[in-house]
Amino acid sequence: MIEIRDKGVILSVKNFQEKFLIVKCFSENNGIISGLIRVSKKKNENIPGSIIFFHWKARLNDQLGYLKIEILDCVFSDIIFDKNKISILNSTISMIKVMLKDREVNKLAFRELHLLLKIICTNDILNEVYKAYINFEKKLLNYCGYGLDWSRCAITNSSSNLKYVSPRTGNAVTAEVGAKYQDQLFKLPKFLINSNIEACKQDIMTALNLVGYFFEKFIFTPNYIRFPEARINLIKYIEAQ
């Protein structure tokens, strides 16, 4: 019998036959792992986004296995009346599901996910939560091998007056370097360089579209993956406000 004990975050829950649920979670030391749990008559806190400690066991490593779950924090319960934060949570979970493969260990991504969930629960300044989410997406790209360096100009190596991003390389350039080509470049919101800078709605939208472009370019289009619906809905939700 193979057994795994680990900390994780629930990614999805779906019914299986009459008495079971299939729970998929992203674990700290074992990547994405799935297992069966019995349907309980107690209050169901097996909700995507919940932080858990679990015990998984199966006869073989590649079997579905059975799960016993201890809920450490039901994130959804903390934000149940906040539609903005729910949309951020849904997008977060959907991006993890599409970016990481089963059993692919990524401790850095898990750490950033855990930090983001804490911010979603505790920070009441919505634009700060959006900023944290966008930073999470950028780091997720980095941890999956597609680094975006916006700390220095790719041409001059200067860290001052960075204003644009090249759609070809994903690197930043200064206002002076990019002036002649500004119609062909993306604008770089200042809060992506300095997290202490406040962001308005337009900054948030620009940043989401910027990071989203590189997900599309590097990950989704080459692998014939559709952009997660929850991420698309997040954009629409912000636009409608």
Structure overview:
The model has no long low-confidence stretch (mean pLDDT 93). The chain is built from seven helices and eight strands; from the N terminus they run βββββααααββαβαα. It is of the alpha+beta class and 241 residues long. Helix content is 38%, strand content 23%.
Short précis:
The chain has helices at 75-78, 83-99, 107-122, 126-143, 175-178, 201-220, 229-240, and strands at 2-16, 20-27, 31-38, 51-58, 66-73, 162-165, 172-174, 186-187.
CATH topology of the largest domain: de novo design (two linked rop proteins)
> Strand order across the biggest sheet?
3-2-1-4-5
Q: Are there runs of 5+ residues with pLDDT below 50, and where?
A: none
Q: Mean pLDDT score, rounded?
A: 93
N/C terminus separation: 52 Å
Number of separate structural domains? 2
Largest sheet: 5 strands, antiparallel
| Net shape | elongated
Please give the share of residues in helix: 25-40%
The number of helical segments is: 7
Structural class: alpha+beta
Beta content: 15-25%
User: Per CATH, which architecture of the largest domain?
Assistant: Up-down Bundle
Helix-strand string: EEEEEHHHHEEHEHH
Rounded Rg: 20 Å
Number of β-strand runs: 8
The CATH top-level class label of the largest domain: Mainly Alpha
Protein name: DNA repair protein RecO
GO cellular component, one term: bacterial nucleoid
GO biological process, one term: DNA recombination
InterPro entries: ARFGAP/RecO, DNA_rep/recomb_RecO_N, NA-bd_OB-fold, RecO, RecO_C
